[in-house]
Amino acid sequence: MDLISLPPCSRRLDTAKMVSGGAAEHHHQLTITTGNGATSGLSPTSTTIKISTTYLKTPVKTDQEILENSMLEDDPNSNTILTSSSKSCGAIDASGKCVDGGDSLTKRPRWGPQHKGAQELAKLYSSGKRTQEIICVYICIALIVINLFLILKHFRIERISKVLVAAMFGILTADFGSGLVHWGADTWGSVELPIVGKNFLRPFREHHIDPTSITRHDFIETNGDNFMVAVPILAKLAWNFFTRSNSEIQQEYALSAYLFLCSIFIAMTNQIHKWSHTYWGLPKWVLFLQNNHIILPRRHHRIHHVAPHETYFCITTGWLNWPLEKIKFWSTLEAIIEVCTGHKPRDDDMKWAQKRT
Predict the structure, then answer these.
(1) Which residues contact 116 (CB under 8 A, 6 or more apart)?
(2) Residue 85 — φ and ψ, nearest 5°?
(3) Cα–Cα distance between 122 and 210 in angstroms, integer?
(4) Residue 41 CB: number of other CB atoms within 10 A?
(5) Alpha helices in 312-353 (DSSP H)
(6) How many Å apart are CA 186 and CA 117, to the nearest integer?
(7) E strand intervals along the chain
(8) 133 near 221, Cβ under 8 Å?
(9) 243 or 50, greater pLDDT
(10) pLDDT: which is higher, 62 or 248
(11) C-beta of residue 269 within 8 angstroms of C-beta of residue 174
(12) DSSP symbol at 217
């Protein structure tokens, strides 16, 4: 796969680099030749615009980082790491060869089902957890069918524009919600926490050290928790339809459409996530949605799977990943929480990753 085709996005620059870069720009003042041959230096505003433009064009993760620190896109289930015995190796291509003629990179096992941490985490999936997932999936599907019937029953063609707007906001809400939950579960907490740890944080830890494990999960295990989150929303929506008058339903129809569509996207988030890790056998309609970035694309999600998994947390569509990264949303939250609590982000995640075979 051509890594150059990964989407250009902003990157988290170290403060030191930004300061030194700014100083360099200040001392190396560029000049502009005017029409009469005179020269003038760039104003501070022009320098700021130049720095900002460079910042926007710099990718979140370089091609080198993605190739060396994430699972190989053209060999997803081998989960190997690339290392070089020569320090002279500069840029590398997709096959692992040094572009500048240095030593080729060698492969050694890194992630996957053989990983000791992944094996321990997989064993923590219990029959009780399975029962919870089955119940949530069946209840959620029943509520989806009921609410879909009621939504269509009360639909009026003149409300089509409001429904479309509601759909858009539903997608964005689900995408942000997926990022918030994903970030929280990836970054904080421990598998040892009562109830929450083994039942809800465990899959996130397993996924980082065995990323393709999700492709081996069935529909129930993949979607059980997301369906559980959608159940209260759908239940409240159905209650409103059954207990309110027709005029009240029509007045709040746009809100009902928003809640219904948002809950659908929430319920399907982890299935979409699973598709982003599936490299063969996908239906053509799923590939169409991925290729047009209507749902989370595979190459887009690879940016998150560059250790230490610190960015691109939104996994419904991924639309919000770039703007949230641009404003340093996640890193700012992490800094605030670390200062207030003393807990380091991704501490438990790193502990499980270090459990080698």
Answers:
(1) 355, 356, 357
(2) -85, -10
(3) 10
(4) 11
(5) 321-326, 329-341, 347-353
(6) 15
(7) 31-33, 39-41, 80-83, 106-109
(8) yes
(9) 243
(10) 248
(11) yes
(12) S
CB 334 within 8 A of CB 351: no
Q: Please give the C-alpha separations between residue 8 and each of 4, 11, 178, 274, 300, in angstroms, as whole numbers.
A: 9, 9, 22, 23, 10
- The residue length of the chain stands at 357
- SS3 for 40? strand
Residue with tokens 């150059």: 4
SS (H, E, C) 121-146: HHHCCCHHHHHHHHHHHHHHHHHHHH
Q: What is the dihedral of CA 260, 266, 270, 271, to 10 degrees?
A: 20
Tell me the two tokens of residue 173: 């809400």
Quickly count: other Cβ atoms within 10 Å of residue 159's Cβ. 15
Cα end-to-end distance, the chain, whole Å: 29
Measured between alpha carbons, how far is residue 234 from residues 14, 130, 201, 262 in Å?
A: 44, 22, 24, 10
Residue pointed to by tokens 């572009």? 99
Residue 98 β-bridge partners: 92
Output the pLDDT for position 84. Answer: 47
pTM over 0.90: no
Q: Is 19 helix (H, G, I), strand (E, B) or coil?
A: helix
Residue 352's nearest CA partner among 129, 111, 184 is 111
d(CA 42, CA 310): 36
**C-alpha distances out from residue 99 to 4, 60, 87, 313, Å:** 14, 22, 13, 32
Per-residue model confidence as pLDDT tens digits over 15-63: 333 334 443 443 334 344 444 444 444 454 444 445 444 545 556 766 5
Q: How far apart are CA 336 and CA 333, in angstroms?
A: 5
Q: What would you measure as the largest C-alpha separation in the chain, in angstroms?
A: 82
Distance CA 60, CA 341 (A): 28
How many Å apart are CA 239 and CA 167, to the nearest integer?
A: 21
Cβ atoms of 177 and 266 closer than 8 Å: yes
